Structures are given as C-alpha cells and as structure tokens.
Amino acid sequence: MRFPEDVPTLTDGVVTLRAHTVADIQPLYDVCQDPEMQRWTTIPLPYEYQRAEQYVTELIPAGWVKGNSWAWAIDYDGRYAGTIDLLPEDRIVGEVGFSVAPWARGNGVGTRAVKLVVRHCFDEGFQRVTWRAYVGNWGSRRVAWNSGFRNLVTVLGSGVARGVRKDEWVASIARDDELEPQGRWWKVPVIETDRVRLRPLRGTDAKRVAEACSDKRTQKWLAGLPNPYQLEDAEGFIEGRLELLASGEAVSWAIADPETDELLGNVSVFDLKNRIDKTMAEVGYWAHPEARGRGVMSAAVRCAIRHAFTPVEDGGLGRRRLVLFAAEGNAASQRVAEVNGFTRTGRQRAASPGRDGEFRDLHCFDLLATDEWPGKSPETS
Ligand SMILES: CC(C)(COP(=O)(O)OP(=O)(O)OC[C@H]1O[C@@H](n2cnc3c(N)ncnc32)[C@H](O)[C@@H]1OP(=O)(O)O)[C@@H](O)C(=O)NCCC(=O)NCCS
C-alpha cells in the first residue's frame, strides 16, 4: 500500500472518509483536548501538538504502508470532523475505533463513518468487525448499536488506559448481518401533569434516591434493597437504569416535583423482554417519604400506564398487558394499583420474603390495554 494514493475514499454522500493530510493536524489536536476524548480513549496525556503532528505525518502513513492500521479522516459539513480507524488484524476479523469532534456530535457522523468502514471491510472479504469501549461510554455504545453491532458482553478488566485496568463492552458484526440496530433501546420521555413530572433519573438525584431507599417503609416492602442503603447504591441504581434502557429491558422514571424538579419517587415499567410474553410488562414504584399520602404515586403510575400502552410507532412501549404485585399488608401500594384500574387477580401464597424472615402473600393485579382505566382518554388524566 502507498500512502496516500492507495487509501480508499469512502462516502455515503454526507460523510466522507479519506486519507489524512497535514491540514488535519490542528483540528485533530483540538479534538484530543476534549475531556470526553481523553476519558474514553487511550491517547497519551497531556496531548501535545507534536503528538498530533507525529500521528498524522508518521504513524498513520506507516499504518497504511505496513497494513496493520487503517485510519481515515472523517469529513462532514465540508471539514475535518474526526478520525476512524480499523485494525485489520488477520483480515478476517478487524477492530474499529473512532472519534468525532465535539461540534459534530449527535448528527449521526459516528454512525455513518462506522457503517462505511464496516461495509468496506466486508467488501474486502473480512468475516467480522469488532468494537470495544470502556463501560460507561454510552455515546460509543449507541454508535455501535446504531450500526448493527450485537451480542454485547462486558469483559471485566480487559481494557487498559494509561496503566489503569478498565472493564470493557465488546460487540461485533458479521458479514451476513444487517447494519441495523438489534433489539430496542428505549427512551425515557418527559411526561408532565399538573401534579408530577416524569423525567430521566440523573446523577444529582442520588441523595434523594438514597434517602427514599433507606426509609424504613421502603426497606420493609422492598426487601431486596441493600441495607444499609448508601449513596453509592443510589449512584449504581441510577447508572443501572441506562443499561436497562439500552438492553430493552425497562424504562424507569424519576418522579419529580413539577415546580422544583426535586425527586419524589421512582416508577418503572420492566420485564419488557419477558421470555414468554413480549407484550406484557410489570409496574413497580417507590416514593420518597416526604412525597407520600398526596396522590403523587397514583398520578405517576397513570402516566406510566399510558406510556406503556401507547404503540411503539407512536413512541410508547406497545404493551398489551401490565401486571403489578404488592405484599399482604402494603395497603398503600395496593391502593395505587386499584385507583389506576388494575384488577385484583389473586394471591401468591408466601411469595414475598421479608427482612424479618417471614414470607407474606403477594397480591396480584393486572390491567389490559382493552380495560377501562382512569386516564385512558387524555381528558380524565
Ligand atoms: C462516541 C462518539 C464517536 C459519537 O459520535 P457521534 O457523531 O456523536 O455519533 P452519532 O451521532 O452517530 O450517534 C451518537 C448517538 O449516541 C447518543 N448519545 C450520546 N451520548 C449519549 C449518552 N451519554 N447516553 C446515551 N446516548 C448518548 C446520541 O444522542 C446519538 O443518538 P442517536 O443515535 O439517537 O442520534 C463521540 O461522542 C466521541 O468522539 N467521543 C469521544 C471519543 C470516543 O469515545 N470514541 C469511542 C471510543 S470506543
């Protein structure tokens, strides 16, 4: 291979991948100053101008000539917008890596660039392309998901950045696979009523989550919660919601005060990938002790029900049936189910383990999309 003559130019009409030139040194250096770039990649730190110079004028050309690394400049909107590279390895399996300039992010540039490289690899006879990212790099994971990478696994400690071991996500795509998303990646819509605002949980909710989940009543009825429940448990809970969205398993909202945006509780629609019935889901919730006894949870569950029964093509979860369980003695939770139109279908005996070592009966409720439920038509919400 000769550089730059033999570097193939790849384009989909919006994004063009081409050989780097010296004009890319400055914008590439600028991208490497971005905190996200430094956090999620292995670039050396501090990243000096000479490093960018050496990368563009020596390392990239050498990679092409030796055939052990193919790096393209990404052009978007008429200028350099990032770099994508492929480690061709044995030319049977290659590994893709990419970065997009902060100004160009969120426009599908990363996804377009990855698809172009993956298609190119398959045209060149590769069998598979792999992708890896440090756990928590949601933007990169989304690009991989958008491009059809699948069978994601987490490999503990398989990555290393500047001497520190990191957990990694790894996924791949094979030559016969479609370059399309596999499975659902749910979104958390903001839903407002005069009583509550349902919105995504965020890091700053951790303190309120920890207060709510340390509360005696929450601890009593949700016996699976850690005890004591610490701030890091709350942070893990919040981060864990992102994984449930990305894997299509659950949608979970912060219930917030519409005036102050302070967290009042949590409502979730989960088991969305139930093995037997993919049209059902379970509803679960807990309230912060300060928010109890004033109809907050009933209002929030009503919003969650409506979203659950809204067809997927209209932005909802496309559910046909919801179930809800509340332990014997948990009158408040059973009431939330009843005021929202759930039907009591029976009880599972001694099904709910308590912290006292006792097993209480579990009351079972369900609600069908075809039932009448308060809030079914918008006027009654
Ligand atoms: C990862 C990166 C390349 C994404 O580039 P991009 O051009 O913004 O990618 P796209 O626009 O094609 O797709 C990004 C998607 O991720 C979403 N996203 C971004 N941050 C997210 C987050 N924290 N959580 C969930 N989704 C997120 C965007 O909304 C977008 O979603 P969409 O597909 O619904 O539009 C870019 O953020 C980057 O350069 N980061 C630093 C370097 C890096 O991490 N490289 C990858 C190393 S493995």
Structure overview:
The structure is a single chain. The protein is built from 10 helices and 16 strands. It has helices at residues 25-31, 35-40, 49-66, 109-123, 138-146, 206-214, 216-221, 231-246, 296-309, 331-339; strands at residues 10-11, 15-18, 70-76, 79-87, 93-100, 128-134, 150-161, 164-174, 191-192, 197-199, 251-256, 263-270, 280-287, 321-327, 343-353, 359-368. It is elongated.
What small molecules accompany the polymer chains? coenzyme A
SS-based structural class?
alpha+beta
Q: Largest sheet, if any?
A: 8 strands, mixed
Mean pLDDT rating: 96
The CATH first-level class of the largest domain comes to Alpha Beta
Strand content: 25-35%
Give the SSE string.
EEHHHEEEHEHEEEEHHHEEEHEHEE
Kindly provide the radius of gyration, computed on alpha-carbon positions and rounded to a whole number of angstroms.
Answer: 25 Å
Label the CATH architecture of the largest domain: 3-Layer(aba) Sandwich
Q: How many structural domains?
A: 2
